[in-house]
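anyone seen this seq b4? input:
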Amino acid sequence: MANVYTFTLTGDVELQAVLRSAQLNAPKAVAQAIYEEAQVIFAKSQVLVPVDTSALRGSGDVSAIQGSGQGVYVDIYYGGPAAPYALYVHEIIGNYHKAPTQAKYLE
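predicted toks r here
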């Protein structure tokens, strides 16, 4: 859950100090919020990803926070060596999946 910051200012020196602090802390807070939201999206995709051998479901994950001062991101992914057919399964449209699984499980 995101942190909430409250403060009271009594002058311009205090305002400058608060802005400097926010400048230092904001990137870390934003990165954490992106990671937490990625975890929520991944959990929803785990319900939707088709299961035959469980290799595809087991190949999914959320990467660590990546990036720099220019921006941060995380990857939510399925596939890799454990399930090279992830893209194929993701794109199959029709009556091939048993509910609640579906194509487009991570979109």
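The beta strands are 61-62, 66-68, 71-73, 76-77. The first strand starts at residue 61 and ends at 62. kinda curious what u guys think
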